[in-house]
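Handout, section B. The chain below has 171 residues.
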Amino acid sequence: MACLVNRIMCQSLNQVQPEDEIISEIRNRYSEIKNQLIDNAKRNKMMPFIAKMLLDLGIDSTYWNDVLEEYRSRNSLAKAELIAILESLRQNGICAYPIENFASVLLTGTDLAMFASGDIDVYVQSREYKRVNIIMQELGYFAENMSEIRGDFYRKPGLEIGFNMMWTWQA
């Protein structure tokens, strides 16, 4: 069972249709592996990738469509928050922009549902450390972790995704 779950998880990242024999095995054993697949996908932040693959195969479409809709909704709210944060920073003369995963989703035009991370990384110059903290607090955010060297992680009550204000580029 674990072997098939691992193959499904790997195949979902390829975003291409699996080979016919794998599709047949998934169809035949889906009800047996569903719970383990969901547990592994949640633990590894892969739910939207699994959902997309299984939807493309027409497997348990109602469940997996709901999963994608949840991520799409969550990420749409996060995008709106990101725009509000960037606008507020810009109005205060601070240059900032998204980097890494969420930026890739936005730049490539990928379906917003395909972002599974719990945070959005934003680059800001380190000299803006104090002003950014004040602005984020004014926007209703609180810092969970603060580091003048690396960055601050901000959360807002009611929002699933946090914002990582990064003072340095990530490798």
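Note. Strands lie at 96-99, 119-124, 142-145, 151-155, 162-166. Compare this with the example in section A.
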